[in-house]
Each structure stands twice: as C-alpha cells, then as structure tokens.
Amino acid sequence: MSVSKASGLRTLGTATALTLIMAAGAQAQTTITIATVNNGDMIRMQGLADDFTAQHPSIALEWVTLEENVLRQRVTQDIAANGGQFDVMTIGTYEVPIWGRQGWLVSLNDLPESWDIDDLLPAIRDGLTVDGNLYAAPFYGESSMVMYRTDLMEAAGLDMPDAPTWAFVRDAAAAMTDRDGEIYGICLRGKAGWGENMAFLTAMSNSFGARWFDQDWRPQFDSEAWATTLNFYIDMMTSYGPPGASTNGFNENLSLFQQGKCGMWIDATVAASFVTNPEESTVADRVGFALAPDNGLGPRSNWLWAWSLAIPAGSDATDEAKAFITWATSRAYTELVAGHEGWANVPPGTRISLYENPAYLEAAPFAEMTLNSINAANPTSPTVDPVPYTGVQFVAIPEFAGIATQVGQEFSAALAGQQSVEEALENAQALTVDEMEAAGY
C-alpha cells in the first residue's frame, strides 16, 4: 500500500479503513473451477473444502459436479479446444496418459516433497505417469470385486469362494432371486457409456477370452468369445437382474444394493465403504467381498482405475490448482475424512501407507480384498490372447471413448430387449471397423 493511500485511510476512521482493507483482500482472491463427478467421495470432498479455504484464504473454489458420462464429455470437449473453463479436472486412468502425451496436462512432479509421491501404490502411479511425469494425482483408486449379501448366500445354502467363477455367480444369482420380494440375485451395470456398461463388459469379456482387437487392430466383436460373453451377461441379467437394468449405472446399482434389493453386485471396490456404512445402507452388517469372477482362463474380470485430479494446460491458475490438488490427495486429507466420517470412509486405493495403517485395516473389512483386486489387474496383458493395446476395461487409444460409447448403446439396447445379441454384436463390429478404418488403423 502506498504512503498516500495509507494516509488517506487514517482520515477515514478505523471501521471504514478495515472495510476497505477487507475489500482489497477479497479482490485479490483467485477463484479456481473444479470439475468433478457426482460420486460419494467427491461430494464428501466438497463438504470438507472449508478446511482448504481456511488454509488458503486467497483461493476461492467453484464446483461443477456432473454425472459420470456428462463429466467425461464436458472435460474432453474443453481440454481438446484448450477452452480454459476448468482449473482442476477429475479424470481417469484412460485419459491421463493420452492427454499427457498430447501436452494437454500440467506436470505435477513439483508438488511438495511432503506430499510424498513415493507413497503412491505402484499400479496406480504407473497409470498416471508418462515419460517420468506424473500428470494427475489420484483421489481414489479402485479395481472391481463382488459385493454380496452374506445372509442371502447363507439362506441359499451356498458359500462364496474368495475367487469365484462366473458359473458360481450365475448359480448363486438364481438361488438368491426373489422377484415377489423385490430381491434380485445380481445387479450389474447396463447404462450405456464407455465408462459405464462398457467398463464392466470389457473387463468381463477378458475373462471369457474375448478382446477388442487382434494384433493387427482388427475388431473382434464377430468372435465366439464376445458372443459367449454378451449372451451370458444378458441371460443372467434378464433372469435374475432388476427391472430397468439397461438404465442402471454405478450410482443406481449402489442405491439398489443399499436398499437390500441385490444379492450380488460386481462393481468398483470404492463402493465397499458405502454399502457397509450403517447410516447409508440397510444391509451394512450383511455384506461380504470376493474377487471378481473368472472362467479359469487366466484373467479375472476386474478392472483398474483411479479418479484423479489434473490441471489442464489452459488453466491460468496453475499454482492455486496445485495447492488444491496437494490438499485433496494428501495423507492429511485422509486423516481429515477419518476424523469426520471414520477410517472406513476415507478415499481408498491410492497410498501404500493406508494399507499399512492399523486403524484403517481394523475399520475396513474390505481393505485387503480391495488391495488384492488392484494388484490382480494387469493392464499390460489384460486378455487371454495377445493384443496390441494396454488397458483392462478400456483400450488406451484416443478413438476408444467414441467407439465404446456407440458400442455401449448397442449392448444396452440388447439388454433392454430392443434388439438381439446377434444384432448388437453385428452393429458393434460394423461401427468399430468403420471408425478404425477412418482413424487410419
């Protein structure tokens, strides 16, 4: 403040001077816009964000919270156009390496040493790193696993193995289904989307010996393995799944399970804390966990993913964005959540130290299965037969999101009974051939 301004303030009186000083401080505040998904952990983060703003009074937070498919569309459009609409984006393990190589993301290698990059789980860190640069900080990491009602399994006279087969899952779904009582043996994703039904079905297809492309990038939806996968899925869901399954994604199935309407749900490991939370789940004390199913061919049907925070190159507030990311993905944030919600509800799957923490291991009966599922995923060799791509529930090429969105619509339509499995696979094969040829493969 200049001498003349200071002298002027002295003549105005203490109250007025304080008002002007506070106004000047408010004007100096930088607002960062954060795009995130409407999942429970992110909603919780927003509720705790006062802790961040108390530590960083010069930074204001503006939230854009979107459904998963909409979020992916919005952030992809913005970053491809260098729109600068967002300063922090919630993106996944699919986007990070592709966008990092394009120069669309800001490197996070200079986060404070206390943030401790070496504490990240190797499987998660590797998926967010390109040429030695960490391009996103994981907020939570996940694989997928079976969550099931222990009481219904017992009533059916069955014991869930730690590593079940798909045949066992189908038999158990049949035994647990009680349509008159609105209990459905199996709840699985059916909502169209490359990160919704196609994340599940791609991971499932790996365990059936299917693959998206052969070594020459020829689409494989005309293969027997894909026909077996999709027929098994639709037959099981039609017989033992909930009505309207073709519109159910992660959040819809989570709600069904928490209401006690699902015998089994195979989905993201991150859901474990929500289905076992007695304040949110009517079956919290009756939930067991197992690895995602297999068919004895090698791969299991579990995926590997991290919802992560990244800074687009178009942001004009990168320092403030890094400060927020450091806060939200730190061990201190984990302890903040534990203090408010209990250790069982902290964001899982990102740090080695969490799985060495006795308080967490005691509070989270799903911790070991989550870590085992993450470590069991193999993105560099996800299929029975060799493939030219990496990724478990996705193919790590830029064209995948657009193609898989269309394929997901075909498969969702088959689940809804609007077309046959054969028609869905024929359409998937044709559109994928067209898109890949247009892309120059």
State the end-to-end CA separation. 62 Å
How much helix is in the residues? Answer: 40-55%
Q: Give the CATH level 1 class of the largest domain.
A: Alpha Beta
Second rung of CATH, namely the architecture of the largest domain: 3-Layer(aba) Sandwich
Main sheet characteristics: 5 strands, mixed
User: What is the strand content?
Assistant: 5-15%
Q: What value does the Rg take, in angstroms?
A: 24 Å
Spatial order of the strands forming the largest sheet? 2-1-3-11-6
How many DSSP H or I helices? 19
Detail the poorly predicted runs: 1-26
- CATH homology superfamily of the largest domain: Periplasmic binding protein-like II
- What shape does the CA trace take? globular
Domain module count: 2
The overall pLDDT, averaged over residues, is 93
Overview in brief:
The protein is an alpha/beta fold. It has helices spanning 3-10, 14-27, 40-47, 50-55, 68-80, 95-101, 122-127, 150-155, 166-176, 197-207, 224-240, 250-258, 272-275, 318-328, 331-341, 358-363, 367-376, 400-415, 421-438; strands at 30-37, 59-66, 88-91, 129-130, 133-134, 137-142, 144-149, 184-187, 262-268, 287-291, 305-310.
What key phrases describe this protein's structure?
441 residues, D-Maltodextrin-Binding Protein, domain 2, 4-stranded mixed beta sheet, 19 helices
Could you walk me through the main structural features you see in this protein, from its secondary elements to its overall organization?
The protein has 19 helices and 11 strands. A 5-stranded mixed β-sheet has the order 2-1-3-11-6. The chain has a 4-stranded mixed β-sheet with strand order 8-9-7-10, with helices on both faces. The protein has about 450 residues and is of the alpha/beta class. About 45% of the residues are buried. The termini are far apart. It is globular, with a radius of gyration of 24 Å. It folds into 2 domains: about 5-140 and about 305-365, D-Maltodextrin-Binding Protein, domain 2 (3-Layer(aba) Sandwich); about 145-300 and about 385-440, Periplasmic binding protein-like II (D-Maltodextrin-Binding Protein, domain 2). It is about 45% helix and about 15% strand. Residues about 1-25 have low confidence and may be disordered.
